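In the design runs reported in the main text, the only information available to the sequence generator was the tokenized backbone. The following block is the verbatim input for one such run; it is reproduced so that readers can re-run the procedure and compare outputs position by position.
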């Protein structure tokens, strides 16, 4: 069975984990109301997606 001969250093482990951090979501403004929303999602403010009203809001 393969077993490591030496312990990995902290810097080596950190280099491997450097890409594991969470990234901020990319937000776009709604073309109708201007509210920031994730792309490919119905606007939570006005309920419009791809130019069509999907959710009726007051």
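Verbatim output:
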């Amino acid at each position: 069975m393969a077993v490591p001969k030496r312990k990995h250093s902290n810097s080596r482990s950190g280099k491997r984990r450097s890409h594991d951090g969470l990234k901020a979501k990319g937000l776009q403004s709604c073309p109708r109301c201007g509210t920031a929303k994730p792309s490919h999602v119905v606007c939570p403010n006005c309920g419009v997606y791809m130019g069509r009203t999907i959710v009726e809001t007051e």
